[in-house]
Amino acid sequence: MIIKNKILTILIFIAVISINLFFGLPRLAQYTAVDETLWSYDRVPKFWRSVAKGNWKGTNLCDKPGITLAAISGMGLPFIQDPSEYGKLTRKAKTPEQLSTIESIYFHLRLPVYLFTLFSLPLFYFLIKRLLGIAIARFSIIFIGLSPIILGISLIVNTDAILWIMVPISLLSFLIYQKEDNKKFLYLTGFLLGLGILTKFVANFLFPFFLLLIFLAYILKDFSQREEQMVYLKKAITDYFIIILIALVTIFIFYPSAWIKPKELLNTTIYSMALRKMWPFLIGAIAVIAADTYLFKSFTVRKICNLFSSYKTILLKTTGILIFGLITFVFLNVHTSMFFYNFEEIMAMPKPDTIFIYEFFSNLLSSFYPLLFGLTPLVVFSFVAAIIFLIKTKESVKNNVSIYTFYFITFIFAYYFANSLASISSTVRYQIIIYPIASIVAAIGFHQILNTNILKKYHPKNNAYLMMAIILISLVSIVSIKPFFLAYSSTLLPNQYILNPKDMGDGSWEISQYLNNLPNAKNLNVWTDKKQVCEKFLGSCTSGFNLNNTNENNFDYLIVSTGGSMETRSRTWKKDENIFAIGKNIINPADLYSPTSTNYDFKVTIDDKTRNFIKIVKTK
Fold first, then answer.
1. What is the residue extent of each domain of the chain?
2. pLDDT, tens digit (0-9, with 9 covering 90-100), for 546-555
3. What is the DSSP string of 58-95?
4. How would you classify the pairing of strands 580-582 and 540-543?
């Protein structure tokens, strides 16, 4: 039986990774994603150039800080020419040879990142198996490994391509440490957290959340006497400081800029965008908790936690009901033509300027929109099922999977809450770390569904058939969106809505290839509201919305897109204008951006949604 289990697990990995490679590898040399030129032509080569020269200050790339990404992606640098020189050609005419070199640059810089994401799947499996068992670990790997959105983000040189791994595995490691009181996982948590922060400052969210988990674990425990409570809290707070110390040491070791400027440790943690507004409160809370723990034997903390401990079952069920209620509201709002909130508009403007209370609730509620419709139907159904089981289970505080469902959905809600306080909408990319965690919750829910009394007797005795069926069902979603994986939305979303209005450049490569196949393509002059088109186009290309700089241009083609229309409307096109000029070309913006207009030479429709397009219009 043990050998059969191992073989089945290996076969699952082979299937998931093979499907990934089949759909992912051909895409590596193709389209350019938003902000990717900053990494491919500048930050990645700059990092390794600075390391080679001992210019430690030069490893300070940006505020992300993106060190982990630059280190991994840079493994492809020895196989290509210096990318820095080709960054100057983005909007200029290019030779076919130069275009081929640009595609080679993207392939070789993306490949190490993509392989890293695939190699992370066994680590996910190991951690989830240790925490929740082999069955849930298998389902999790299928749901994570075959998520269209996770596949899409893994194919580009972007900090989010690494972040979706670092934050969840840090969380899993910490939960295993809590479960087993195993020092190895305590140290691993600190190390992984340090790498996560080196990837993107968002990982700092784990500092306050780990502190919350310490108190939640206390609340859910059954202590026989007061001394046990004090011992637990003192040990837990001490271990928390060890995690912080290891994380800071990890940042210092792998961030050469910090060697000559130790303040970078603060810039990547409490002074980062993630904690900039709340760091005094966080540091103050930690100081008060530490003083209470070491000087007053956790008197205040125990009083507060014991109050909640008396209602631990209510706490779990109330959290489940809250999340289920929010999910229900989002589904109803979407299927009643966005009657209460227009989630699509909120997603298109990640930092709207409006009244704070309204802005907060609109951001919080809309956060569930990309999650529920960005997961495949099977995964979202299982995700909701896990929450229902949490609510319905009588002895939820004694049920292992119910407790971890509670922890995971608390993380999701807390993350959305923090984003909303910071006036940030949780778009697909801004909440990429949530998709793996939601997939684990879905795996829990799917496992619980299979073990209900109704389905137990129909459960396939051969698990291989069940796993094959889940893989095939997941494959349908990937095939349906190919090759625009980051633009995926499930069939549960009405066709008139777009899940990710702030797209990542979807369709730009297909447009450039059409242009490149036109006669005399290298002599063409085009304007586009989607700058990613320019990089893979042979001719001259102008992008942007400062149209005063295009007055003398006579463009052969205009390339416009759904995402670009939002920028054009806000920056260039006034509502009372029937026409405006792009260079010497007078256009009607309403017709140009109309999703039903037939005035175009070539059009790419994304996710089979009429409203989500990028098209080429020949000028008159």
1. 161-301, 508-618
2. 666 566 678 8
3. GG---SSB-HHHHHHHGGGGGGS--HHHHGGGTTS---
4. unpaired
